[in-house]
Amino acid sequence: MRQWVMGLVSVVLVLSLSACGGSNGGNSSPNSSQPSNTSDTPPASTENEEEYLPEPGAKLTVWESQEQVEYMEKIAAEFEKQYGVPVKLEVVAGGDQGTRLATDGPSKLAADVLTMPHDQIAQAVKAGLLLPNDLFEDETRAVMEDSAIKAVSYDGVLYGYPKSVETYAMYYNKDIFPEAPKTWDEIISFAETYTDTKQNKYAIMWEFVGYYTYPFVSTLGGYFFGNDNTDLTDIGLNNEGAVQGFELLKSLKKILPMNAGDVSYDVKTQLFQEGKLALNIDGPWSIAAFKDKVNFGVAPLPAMSNGEVSHSFSGVKAYFVNSYTEYPIASRLFSNFAANKENQLLNYQMTGAIPANKEAGEDPTIKNDPIISGFFEQFSHSTPMPTIGEINAVWDPLQAAFRTIWDDPKADVKTTLDTMVDTIKTSISSK
């Protein structure tokens, strides 16, 4: 009798959701990017997953990258134990899942749930490939880092269930710095006595590309595009704040006397491994390169002279629900379940993934990790990488401006930035 009642409740929920969601409920092919909830009354929000029941006979397919399979097998087994829904895993590389969804989604061959980096959301939403995170929206917004929420939303609608985050921060050699420096002023003072080009010793390095040099753009008030990197008519790469940031960048040539093109990933990685580079701005993907070779910690990026905390670019990986799924409730339940605090901590323990969940980030296992805690703290001061395609018009001119300002002592910062912005505008308007 209990199973019959639960099944009946599930059917009612499915019919109710379909009534609210129109064609995006799951069984019919969507033809627009509108969220599944198109009525004036949003679906009921809850903090208790048990209030929603999977569709009778539901079974799910989940795409996962090879390095995450062992972790996901545990999640899938626990989900089936709690909800009675079997979960089949298919290995698909993380960067390929969005592309596969575009072709396999409409033909009903794609997974019900997949993981994508946030910068693939716009294209998927415009193609009508994703269901919004509507049933668990309030809960997700409450427990996840704000930057993660912003990253997995599009046009004001939340689509993703944040899984993990990444950004770059400052690696520091503990044999040189028992405590990480907190400001650029501290680093400049240290470099005056430490940097020695004849011995190949340097205080700090970062790559001269837009991703890593973004703090000099944004921290003092510059930006790529207005309205959270969506307004192409508003380019803030040559405003007063950006000019101040690039002036600071130019002044740092005295502590890193190398041409910008010579500061490569391989160069700084080797120097840090050899103990000749005291501070290295890099991401969590380089942990393995240093783990057994350097006594190091990770700290947030150095603050500006006025005390402003440096802003970095960040990426967010999240679970998403295929809009063509036959089981929209079960898929939402799984995505929310997989993204909860306990499972994000499990992912950290098994793979080193940095949680997007705020409480997970405050957990002692993270707080007491001298490496991951630094990245998590920096993430709270980050900006999600822009998702609009026009961002590709920025990278090359921006890198060229960085290098001109750094390498040419006679280059005027404002003039160089004005030229760069004109180049970007011309490139965007020609497409």
From TrEMBL:
Any single GO CC term annotated in Swiss-Prot or TrEMBL for this entry: ATP-binding cassette (ABC) transporter complex, substrate-binding subunit-containing
Protein's UniProt name: Maltodextrin-binding protein
Top-level taxonomy: Bacteria, Bacillati, Bacillota, Bacilli, Bacillales
The organism of origin for this protein: Paenibacillus lutimineralis
Keywords, in A-Z order: Cell membrane, Lipoprotein, Membrane, Signal, Sugar transport, Transport
PANTHER family for this protein: MALTOSE-BINDING PERIPLASMIC PROTEIN, MALTOSE_MALTODEXTRIN-BINDING PERIPLASMIC PROTEIN
Primary site of residence: membrane
Keyword Signal: yes
Family: Belongs to the bacterial solute-binding protein 1 family.
